[in-house]
């Protein structure tokens, strides 16, 4: 590979010497030893014995460190959690260490995103080589950007499913696309390398605000046309670079895909057989699809028939690496009425977020089970209430299994759910809504759907959407359209419902909501084209919906759906995430 | 006593510690980390180890003394102790911790109490040995000599458990030729 290193910082010449390492370990003996060992490697070492302190250091000095080495067992914070935070907020490579080398633990570390797992006692030679992780990340970042650029150009011409493929490889499991871009990457690298300012990418901390702007921009652009450059332009954040946006977008998609993957796999929609695989939905797991399909059918009934009950068990089974899927209950969920609850199981276990809608509308009882990321709280949402989804920080990264171009279904689910919720709640901009919007730092997801919608349908943010004949479709659209949580379904025109275009399966086709959305739009044929976009929308939406968004995946854990939640919740989450 | 004799004594002593598994290769690594910029490195690290361990042992005693023992907590302490002991290469202590943890899992009060005793025993033993060793080193230094380094080859010969940098490989017969003049570094 001829890719240049891309390190153009002053210390490049001596690389890996001067590598800035942050070591976190509660054992003072080890801390001293590691410091000494790392200094022998000519690295710049900073030590601290508390995870919180480490996070503070990292936040204070953004771009002040190249790599973090952390012990797994620490008193104040679980090493895995720290790992997630670092990965999410700072996107630094993290190495875990422990005296315990059990396969399960190691696996957990890798799942949480650790780039390596060292067993104590640690040898000098192991520490000498840690620079490779920093280097590798740099390389991948550049390559990802190249890939994204490639995707941009073909967005318009490709169908949704194809987009999925792109997204698929964007997700990191890129094979051909990635390879193809190698040359491009090299060129890009060379170009970037030549320019110190661009090669050394400053670590961008994706705060909630920033992420909201991002999502807003994405919505404005339109899912089918989204690309880093456009997003960047719209965001109007002077210090942000295209690469930052690109990699953020990339990560998001990756994350969503993983969620989707897991969901698909663990999906246990009741009785909803994935009978008709939507065309687009090539890879998705049946779960959501099926359910969505069902929903779709219901929708056609015209009323807000998110007949989740029968099928809506949108089981988003975000399984943690442990694979325990909890709370996936499709059947029963459906019957539940009146409560939109999200159960977030323990992080270590399966995470299944179950969101059950309680349609106050009565027409539809939908229980949506969304895999949750290990959150132990159960959020109860009532139609008329703003659901409070407690985001647990302990999100265990979902395994991205066979990544297909699946859009994170969970997100979709969420959207759907929120949609449903909205109907009764007429969201309108009631106090809660406003609060939400106010608080949700900007996730104002302008409903992307707007673009897609036809004249009548007005996708409003979920909070606003209310009682109007929120057909399922609308609901569904909401999420899709509005990447941000604002599911406005208020103006959802019943027309949609009548649209039987709404093909259930679209819901979860890889494109997920996107498809659905397309269907809804009367006559609009966004079809899979917007698939990706749709996903983007949902993706973003979803994360918020899903309490346990893999924090590390999304720099800004908060997503639009936040306004679905109680503003206070939002803040709570916020604090939790960014504490 | 002549410096050379002291040095030889130190080497012999260290050898036995390795042979009896009180210490493993990690300790050698620590010694190798010590240099001019940090001449008391080993001493400092070992002192930290003593402090941490004693605190942990106290906590363990207390935890096991409770009417209703919280094994999770006990296990956490033992895990920490295991980590600490591995940091300086206190092999026997570490091994005792492994056994200890197994019994914690079984929630076996009697066995864990016995394990605690065992761990304590091993700890005090190695503490004693290390203190002796450090004292010998100090004497050598005070007498103007330098601390001899044990070569890694030595460890290979006696089949020490545990990992060690095999960067330096000498043909060693038994545990003989491991400390030649070149290996003696001057402070």
UniProtKB/TrEMBL annotation, chain A:
Pfam families: Myb_DNA-binding, Response_reg. Residues 20-135 form the Response regulatory domain. One of its GO terms (molecular function) is DNA binding. CDD domains: REC_typeB_ARR-like. The keyword Transmembrane helix does not apply. GO terms for cellular component: nucleus. Residues 171-198 are annotated as: Disordered. GO terms for biological process: cytokinin-activated signaling pathway; phosphorelay signal transduction system. Residues 182-194 have a biased composition (Basic and acidic residues). Keywords: Nucleus, Phosphoprotein, Transcription, Transcription regulation, Two-component regulatory system. It is found in: Nucleus. The keyword Transcription regulation applies. The modification 4-aspartylphosphate is found at residue 71. This is Two-component response regulator ARR1. It comes from Hibiscus syriacus.
From TrEMBL, chain B:
Residues 38-137 form the HPt domain. The keyword Cytoplasm applies. Keywords: Acetylation, Cytokinin signaling pathway, Cytoplasm, Nucleus, Phosphoprotein, Two-component regulatory system. One of its GO terms (molecular function) is histidine phosphotransfer kinase activity. Pfam families: Hpt. PROSITE patterns: HPT. The modification Phosphohistidine is found at residue 79. The keyword Acetylation applies. GO terms for cellular component: cytosol; nucleus. Functions as a two-component phosphorelay mediators between cytokinin sensor histidine kinases and response regulators (B-type ARRs). Plays an important role in propagating cytokinin signal transduction. Histidine-containing phosphotransfer domain (HPt) contains an active histidine that mediates the phosphotransfer. This is Histidine-containing phosphotransfer protein. The lineage of its organism: Eukaryota, Viridiplantae, Streptophyta, Embryophyta, Tracheophyta.
């Amino acid at each position: 590979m001829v890719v240049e290193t891309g390190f153009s910082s002053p210390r490049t010449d001596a690389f890996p010497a001067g590598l800035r390492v942050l070591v976190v370990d509660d054992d003072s003996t080890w801390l001293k030893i590691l410091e000494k060992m790392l200094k022998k490697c000519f690295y710049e070492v900073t030590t601290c014995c508390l995870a919180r302190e480490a996070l503070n250091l990292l936040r204070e000095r953004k771009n002040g460190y190249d790599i973090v080495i952390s012990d797994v067992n620490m008193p104040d914070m679980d090493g895995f959690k720290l790992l997630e935070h670092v990965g999410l907020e700072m996107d630094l490579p993290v190495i875990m260490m422990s005296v315990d080398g059990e396969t399960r633990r190691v696996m957990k570390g890798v799942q949480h995103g650790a780039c390596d797992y060292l067993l104590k006692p640690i040898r000098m030679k192991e520490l000498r080589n840690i620079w490779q992780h920093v280097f590798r990340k740099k390389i991948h970042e550049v390559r990802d950007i190249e890939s994204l650029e490639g995707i941009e150009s073909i967005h318009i011409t490709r169908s949704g499913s194809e987009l999925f493929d792109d997204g698929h490889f964007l997700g990191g499991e890129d094979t051909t696309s990635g390879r193809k871009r190698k040359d491009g990457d090299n060129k890009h690298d060379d170009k970037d390398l030549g320019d110190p300012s661009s090669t050394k990418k400053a670590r961008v901390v994706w705060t909630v605000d920033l992420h909201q702007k991002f999502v807003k921009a994405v919505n404005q652009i339109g899912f089918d046309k989204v690309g880093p450059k456009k997003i960047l332009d719209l965001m109007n954040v002077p210090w942000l670079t295209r690469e930052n946006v690109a990699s953020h977008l990339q990560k998001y998609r990756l994350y969503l895909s993983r969620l989707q993957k897991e969901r698909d796999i663990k999906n246990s929609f009741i009785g909803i057989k994935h009978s008709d695989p939507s065309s687009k939905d090539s890879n998705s797991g049946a779960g959501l699809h099926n359910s969505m399909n069902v929903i779709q059918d219901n929708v056609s009934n015209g009323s807000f028939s998110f007949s989740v009950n029968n099928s809506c068990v949108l089981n988003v089974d975000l399984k943690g690496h442990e694979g325990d899927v909890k709370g996936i209950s499709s059947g029963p969920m459906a019957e539940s009425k009146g409560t939109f609850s999200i159960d977030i199981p323990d992080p270590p276990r399966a995470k299944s977020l179950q969101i059950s809608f309680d349609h106050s509308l009565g027409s539809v009882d939908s229980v949506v089970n969304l895999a949750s990321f290990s959150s132990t709280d159960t959020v109860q949402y009532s139609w008329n209430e703003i659901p409070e989804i407690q985001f647990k920080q302990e999100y265990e990264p979902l395994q991205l299994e066979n990544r297909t171009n699946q859009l994170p279904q969970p997100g979709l689910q969420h959207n759907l759910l929120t949609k449903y919720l909205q109907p009764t709640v007429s969201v309108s901009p009631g106090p809660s809504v406003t609060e939400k919007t106010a608080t949700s730092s900007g996730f104002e997801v302008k409903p992307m759907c707007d673009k897609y919608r036809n004249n009548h349908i007005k996708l409003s943010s979920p909070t606003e959407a209310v009682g109007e004949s929120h057909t399922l479709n609308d609901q569904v659209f909401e999420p899709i359209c509005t990447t941000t949580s604002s599911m406005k379904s208020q103006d959802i025109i019943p027309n949609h419902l009548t649209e039987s275009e709404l093909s259930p399966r679209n819901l979860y086709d890889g494109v997920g909501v996107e498809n659905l959305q397309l269907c809804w739009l009367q006559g609009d044929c966004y079809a899979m084209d917007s698939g990706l976009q749709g996903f983007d929308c949902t993706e973003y939406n979803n994360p918020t919906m899903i309490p346990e968004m893999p924090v590390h995946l999304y720099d800004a854990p908060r997503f639009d759906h936040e306004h679905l939640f109680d503003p206070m919740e939002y803040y709570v989450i916020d604090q939790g995430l960014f504490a | 006593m002549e410096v050379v004799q002291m040095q030889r004594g130190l080497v012999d002593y260290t050898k036995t510690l390795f042979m009896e598994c009180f210490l493993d290769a990690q300790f050698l690594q620590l010694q190798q980390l010590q240099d001019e910029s940090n001449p008391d490195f080993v001493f400092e690290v070992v002192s930290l180890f003593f402090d941490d361990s004693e605190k942990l042992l106290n906590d363990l005693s207390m935890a096991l003394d409770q009417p209703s023992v919280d094994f999770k907590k006990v296990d956490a302490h033992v895990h920490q102790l295991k980590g600490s002991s591995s940091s300086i290469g206190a092999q026997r202590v570490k091994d005792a911790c492994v056994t200890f943890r197994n019994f914690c899992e079984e929630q076996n009060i009697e066995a864990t109490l016995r394990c605690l005793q065992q761990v304590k025993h091993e700890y005090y033993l190695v503490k004693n040995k290390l203190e002796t060793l450090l004292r010998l080193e100090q004497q050598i230094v005070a007498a103007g000599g330098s601390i001899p380094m044990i070569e890694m080859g030595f460890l290979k010969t006696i089949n020490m458990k545990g990992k060690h940098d095999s960067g330096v490989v000498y043909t060693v017969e038994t545990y003989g030729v491991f400390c030649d003049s070149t290996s003696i570094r001057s402070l």
